[in-house]
Amino acid sequence: MSFDKNKPYNNLPLLPPQIEVETKAVLKKAILAREALGRLTAANRRLPNESLLVNAVLLQEAKSSSEIENIITTNDKLFQAAVSETKVTDPATKEVLRYPRALWRGLELVQARGFVNTPTLIEIVNIVKGNTAGLRKVPGTAVVNGQTNEIIYIPPEGESIIAEKLKNLEVFLNTTNDGIDLLIKMAIAHYQFEAIHPFHDGNGRTGRIMNILFLVQHGLLRQPILYLSKYIIEHKNDYYNALRDVTERGAWEAWILYILEAVEKTAIHTEAKIEAICALMASATEQIKRDLPAIYSHELVNELFRLPYCKRDFLVTAGLVKEKTAGRYLMNLEKIGILGATKVGREKLYINKKFYELLKS
Ligand SMILES: Nc1ncnc2c1ncn2[C@@H]1O[C@H](COP(=O)(O)OP(=O)(O)OP(=O)(O)O)[C@@H](O)[C@H]1O
Ligand SMILES: [Mg+2]
């Protein structure tokens, strides 16, 4: 192979890989991962509505995915910023908040176009980064070891080479009659995207958003609720090593197994989280019915579990109360211990503490 880690890898092979990637071990693991995904979808469908938790879970993912890149915000800052009118000044929190926007825009584009393509990926990275840089035009981008600054990988250089490799990736992603299992395809495409590294920055996050778009596009997920970043943070060295080993040794099997394991474990984790949230919703329902029967409604409980923070406007917008009574509702919910009040700027926010703790886990 012609890989030299000190030179741009312009010979990055096009897809599909020229070896048999669907080994017995890979196929076995793909089955387990798909089963776990199926159970996750089923759990999510038991919620009052399938998109109930989407925004809350996505904020959590935005935090983790950005954390891989050392863009650090806290759950508190992030969740408050997501609901508050107070202007966000912390740059990391701002950057993390752009991530959900990028994902929603990506889903919108995939729905409209029916596939993931280069313009979509460019729009995503531009939203994530809050600029209009687009594809890399100048040399000098490298993946380096964060501790030692040693070069690990230099991606292909030259706009036309990058565009050509992306086109090939796009064709591979959108070819569904080549017999490659969709989850395995996602794993291969994720490596290839990271190896092309088409942007100056934001490749990791854009590549992880691309995975979700792919799963939703092909119906492996009905809602964007499977996020691998937590798993990746917990197994970050393996993530980096496995990517590197595909480049250096063509070690596709280990890479694909890594991603399939990430999918399986994350689906199991997310399913358990949804079950726990369902149980929490049931007990909150009981409590409100008992202690505050006059204000109880199914829709009120749903609103309390849409995001971990709630405020007067939310109840009004949801059509539950008039402006004047919203405050009283929230104060009563605080009195019975379901919510806790906190001030952000001049605004009063109410946290659903137990829900918040579950989301974080
Ligand atoms: N050896 C490698 N070859 C190709 N890609 C790699 C390699 N090691 C890591 N990567 C990818 O590069 C990403 C980092 O690239 P970049 O800084 O452009 O993205 P980011 O979104 O800013 O960061 P991050 O992914 O860390 O959040 C990693 O997340 C990983 O996906
Ligand atoms: Mg970066």
Helices, strands, pairings?
Blueprint (H helix, E strand, L loop, with lengths): L23 H22 L8 H14 L7 H9 L7 H23 L4 H12 L13 E2 L6 E3 L5 H16 L7 H15 L6 H15 L11 H6 L1 H14 L2 H40 L6 H7 L4 E2 L1 H6 L5 H13 L4 E5 L2 E5 L1 H8 L1
Antiparallel strand pairs: 1-2, 3-5, 4-5
Helix pairs in contact: 1-11, 2-3, 2-4, 4-5, 4-8, 5-8, 6-7, 7-8, 7-11, 10-11, 11-15
Give a verbal description of the structure.
There is one protein chain. The protein has 361 residues and is mainly alpha-helical. The protein has two domains: 246 residues, Fic-like fold (Orthogonal Bundle); 69 residues, Arc Repressor Mutant, subunit A (Orthogonal Bundle). 61% of the residues lie in helices and 5% in strands. The chain has 15 helices and five strands. A hairpin with a 6-residue loop joins strand 1 and strand 2. Helix 6 runs antiparallel to helix 7, helix 7 packs across helix 11 and helix 11 packs antiparallel against helix 15. The chain is elongated. The model has no long low-confidence stretch (mean pLDDT 95).
Q: Describe the sheet with the most strands.
A: 3 strands, antiparallel
Low-confidence blocks of residues = none
N-to-C series of helices and strands: HHHHHEEHHHHHHHEHHEEH
Residue-averaged pLDDT: 95
Count of domain modules: 2
CATH arch. level architecture of the largest domain: Orthogonal Bundle
Strand order across the biggest sheet? 3-5-4
What is the terminal separation in angstroms? 43 Å
Specify the helix fraction band. 55-70%
Radius of gyration: 22 Å
Structural class by SSE content: mainly alpha
Count the strands?
Answer: 5
CATH topology of the largest domain, by name, is Fic-like fold
Provide the list of bound ligands, each named once.
adenosine-5'-triphosphate, magnesium ion
Shape: elongated
Beta percentage is under 5%
CATH superfamily grouping of the largest domain: Fido-like domain
